[in-house]
Automatic annotation (TrEMBL):
Keywords: Oxidoreductase, Peroxidase. Transmembrane segments: none annotated. It comes from Mariniflexile jejuense. This is OsmC family protein. Coiled coil: none annotated. InterPro entries: KH_dom-like_a/b, OsmC/Ohr_fam, OsmC/Ohrsf. Its EC number is 1.11.1.-.
Amino acid sequence: MTNLITTTWLGNMKFESTNPSGHNLFIDAGPENDGNGEGYRPKALMLSALAGCSGLDVASLIKKMKLDVSDFKIDIEANLTEEHPKFYDKVAMHFHFYGDNLSEKKLQKAVDLSVEKYCGVMEMFRQFATLTIETHFHKK
């Protein structure tokens, strides 16, 4: 399957990018790079894609396993290299689950399945970055 994304320059440092979902997004540089900060930063968008990909896997597994989870979030800390072209060489993902009845073992299995088997964006990141994954459980 091939995806077609069209990214159109809107002037200055701003672009609009299409998505197969039909929802477009804006990309822009910050003021420090002559932009107006009216859109997503490309490298940070990659981190959102990583969290989103894995998050969708885990949410699907939570539903399939009928797990009781009040809230769920993913924090990502990524180290950007200093030399050009700058890229993420170290990425730490923190999965946070909140609830009174968390099945820690099953939730850990859901995270592991996403990390090891399902998340294609994770596999792409493995080509250039060292990934560390941590799972945190919080009683509501």
